[in-house]
Design brief:
The protein is of the alpha+beta class and about 270 residues long. It has helices at about 25-30, 35-45, 45-60, 65-75, 85-90, 110-120, 125-160, 175-180, 185-195, 200-205, 220-235, 240-260, 265-270, and strands at about 1-5, 10-15, 20-25, 95-100, 105-110. The chain has two domains: about 1-140, no CATH class; about 175-270, no CATH class. A hairpin with a 5-residue loop joins strand 4 and strand 5.
């Protein structure tokens, strides 16, 4: 549950099925603190509101009941017609509006619908609401970036612990591959981790743009960073290229066994996609 402040009014927001729902009850308080339920009901009985809600549900809810919706739509505008959020949800199987009990209870709506309600309450309030909502989303993205960096730190620490099952494990290089002289240190690392040079990859993937490292997943990029540091150390120790390659390949196999089974890596990879 998140909270933003709009023109001195606190507005609660919660996420459901990866969608944001904003409190209509809190928005209504901006106009009438003591009559929020009446305000929401008056908005719901409006024909334009019902048409908007019907289109939204048709677009987003395969289980929406159009026959029941048509019944409400025909009655819209009549003096005797009233409609509560609960009636709307129960009769049409709507998902755009939600009634929540408890401490932070009230009537909530998907952000698309909440912005429409806010416009009906006050155009000025709607604009400030959108501005604060966007600021909240930007802050959440920043926090997501911090979480990713924190997870990478945990992953690198885990490399020095117990071995785990394999997944994207590099191939062990043959004697011939280990004895070849490679033109660049980049290809030494490519061979250690991917089992092929940049040229080999381009020849096998003529239709793809970029290079072999552009196609690497998060776990491979973490491993590659570690190999670069180790290779620099081996060079300072004046180890021959063939010896360095064999060492780096064995290290890559070991690290990838660890990295590919760490839950944090899979979560980060999922966010990338």
């Amino acid at each position: 549950m998140a909270k933003i402040t709009v023109l001195s009014s606190e507005i609660m927001i919660y996420s459901q099925n990866k969608e944001d729902y904003i409190s209509l009850t809190d928005i209504a308080k901006y106009k009438n603190v003591d009559g929020t339920d009446d305000l929401i009901r008056n908005w719901l009985r409006n024909r334009n509101t019902l048409e908007f809600l019907g289109v939204w549900e048709h677009l987003n809810n395969p289980d929406f009941k159009p026959v029941e919706f048509d019944g409400f739509k025909k009655m819209a505008g009549l003096n005797s017609f009233t409609l509560t959020p609960k009636q709307w949800i129960d009769k049409t199987n709507a998902i755009g509006i939600v009634s929540k009990p408890g401490r932070y209870g009230g009537t909530y709506a998907h952000k698309d619908i909440a912005f429409e309600f806010a416009s009906w309450v006050s155009v000025e309030f709607k604009l400030y609401l959108i501005k604060e909502f966007q600021r909240l989303k930007e802050e959440e993205l920043k926090q997501l970036g911090w979480d990713i960096r924190r997870n990478l730190t945990k992953i690198n620490y885990r490399i020095h612990t117990d071995a785990i099952k394999q997944n994207l494990i590099p191939p062990e290089l043959s004697v011939r591959q280990g004895s070849l002289i490679y033109a660049s240190e980049a290809d030494v690392l490519n061979m250690a981790l991917f089992g092929m040079t940049a040229k080999d990859w381009r020849e096998k993937n003529p239709g793809k743009k970029g290079n072999i490292r552009d196609e690497a997943d998060v776990s491979q990029l973490v491993c590659l960073s570690n190999l670069e540091n180790l290779n620099a150390l081996f060079i300072r120790e004046e180890a021959p290229q063939g010896e360095r390659l064999r060492k780096l390949n064995q290290i890559a196999i070991h690290q990838m066994k660890l990295l590919t089974e760490i839950p944090g890596v899979k979560q980060i990879e999922g966010r990338k996609k």
